Input
Amino acid sequence: MHAAKVSDTPMEFMVDFLTKAREIADGNANIPEELRVNLQKALDIACGLDGYLEKMNSQESAPLAELYQ
Output
């Protein structure tokens, strides 16, 4: 049995909440399609944001690295 992944960044929590909200919306016929579409768009953006931010971040400077030692 595999252990479930635990969220550890704010964006991972947001993805989890948006996923749950989308599942609720998908299970309710009274939810307008426009809301479903926008919820999916928000989820798509949130899913890729951590990777994007990592790529766009600058490398740690030597002085900053020394502070952590």
